[in-house]
Amino acid sequence: MCRHLAYVGPEEPLGRLLVGPPHGLYRQSWAPRRQRYGTVNADGFGVGWYAAGDPVPARYRRAGPIWADLSFADLARVVRSGALLAAVRDATLAGADAEAAAAPFAAESWLFSHNGAVKGWPRSLAGPAAGLSTADLLSLEARNDSALVWALVLARLRAGDDPGRALADTVGEVAAAAPGSRLNLLLTDGGSIAATAWGDSLWYLARPGGGTVVASEPYDDDPRWREVPDRTLLVADRDDVQLTPLKEPSDVSATAPSEEPPT
Description:
The chain is an alpha+beta fold and 263 residues long. It has one domain (3-252): Glutamine Phosphoribosylpyrophosphate, subunit 1, domain 1 (4-Layer Sandwich), CATH 3.60.20.10. Helices cover 21% and strands 28% of the residues. It is built from 7 helices and 13 strands. The strands form 2 sheets. A 7-stranded antiparallel sheet has the order 3-2-4-1-10-9-11. The chain has a 6-stranded antiparallel sheet with strand order 5-6-7-8-12-13, covered by helices on one side. Strand 9 and strand 10 (212-215) form a beta hairpin. The radius of gyration is 17 Å and the shape is globular. It starts with a strand and ends in an 18-residue tail after the last strand. Residues 251-263 have low confidence and may be disordered. Catalyzes the hydrolysis of the gamma-glutamyl amide bond of hercynyl-gamma-L-glutamyl-L-cysteine sulfoxide to produce hercynylcysteine sulfoxide, a step in the biosynthesis pathway of ergothioneine.
């Protein structure tokens, strides 16, 4: 379910990363090569990018499949950026939130995407959600698991956690509350990328001309693509990629919601 990609590096047209490659995100919407869950990503798409001198990213999102948007290819051909995050969506559950449920989610300088699914949603995340403020919950962009996971990440970022720790701690909390969840998270502030491989595929490419791509799967057959092992945190910038193993939750019962029926 879902494919996503982030890039930081020299400025270039969005289409060179998303539409032009033979197996780019555009094609992955109907013909992914390494997607383990689902087959077609037609439930929305989005791209967020950064303009020079502006730390707040722009977004373009739609509720339908990327191939049905006749304007996107033109937009991607002419818009240039040195940082972006894009995703095509295969919804876990049908919902009424339309493009609001499509990644990337955004706040301040951040863009975020979740490839995966939270097991037992929504009941399973009652415990973690209780730790958020009322304002955080009322500000959710959509009523889906990805939006709630984003709220948990964002709360940690606003509390001062660095991106890698914010993702790692959120994955640990959600995995403890909802065992069996798939939690490939992707985050950028326009200068760096943080990502987790937890239950689905993740790859990265250090481009010889400068720049780093992190994606659910390679967009071409360049032999320099490297697969990220499962249960791993990736932190990257234009010139460097660091991988750190993630720990399995040690106490599932600590944050799991009660199984007693509601009164």
